[in-house]
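queue> holo job accepted (iron/sulfur cluster)
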Amino acid sequence: MHDTKQVAELVESVDKGQDAQNPKKLTEFAKTFLTEIGACEVGVCTTQTLAGGPPSTDLEYVLPGARSAVSFAVPMDQEKIKRYLAKESHADHQADNIHVNFMVTGMASGLADYWKQKRIPSVGVAGNGVYRHDTPGGMYDFKPNISHRYLAVRSGVGWFGFSGNVITPSHGASVILGSVVTTAELEPTEPLVEEDRYCDDCKLCLASCTSGLMDEEERTSVSLGGREFSYSKRHHFQRCDLVCGGFAGLAKNRKWSTWSPGRFDVPDEEEKVGDALIEAVVASLPRPEIPGGFRQPALPASHKLNVTCANCQLICHPERNERKRRYKLLTKGGVVVQNSDGTLEAMTSAQAERHLAAMSPEQRAMYEKT
Ligand code: SF4
Ligand code: SF4
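queue> job finished
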């Protein structure tokens, strides 16, 4: 029987013989490792290819001495997305979305831990829900430790669509992004070539957004390692919080909504958005719990967050006709209300009005300003 030292020496000599730690081999290994467990796209950035980027591209923020990052995408279930957009099933896509998010976090940790065992310091970046504490508003500024989006566009995992979501050639924007930061020197991959950037400015993402986050004309751009990337300029970020938090989501024509049961107004004036969010949060706190959901550190421990929108992401399929079909599903699916047991239900606009009118003034105040 071999002793453990002999086994370690044997493994090390095989790795050495195969030159397993050279940048090309390590890069190929990362792609294989992540693809084998569910990634649909994998790319690599380095400190050079991210040079000049915003603070959330500073790899050393999570790992001193970091030189490279592996970026990857994992697809969500397309059939569940269609039923979610049509408002036929909230639970199925919500569960899939949460599951894929945690899977991505686990996949990133898995590769990082594998490399750490091989004495290559590495960190798996969580898929979502980790924010910097060293900004003026701390966690509530919602500044990520590392931006998966910037790493993804620079490494060719996807490209910025008009919406600002990362759109992948294989699964559109319906992916969850992950990153692994490492001290290893890896071979960077190139941004997507023009023919793989399918965004044609159809603006169905804009049409499916009830918050007014995206500017229709102006764009914002970012430079990463000498390459320029751009997407629609963002208005007040808390517009999206109002809708994605489940406080608002009714379309202007009041005929369709997101899965948000709340119908508080999203003010046109930027300076009123912050107060509108606080007012809606306070009014909504006593609502019954929606089935499913996930714990979010920005909320009290007693409360869960639910997936109620993401329309701009889920509508954005690589095929334009499929985008149009999804937009139709969304806008013909009715509006959502909450029942007293917490469940969500889609119905016509008129039925929803009657549902709200039948509530006591205290109940109704949890959903809209009366
Ligand atoms: S929905 Fe249309 S405009 Fe928006 S990102 Fe996708 S392809 Fe671009
Ligand atoms: S998630 Fe919803 S509210 Fe937020 S930008 Fe996308 S469509 Fe608009």
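queue> The chain has a mean pLDDT of 95.
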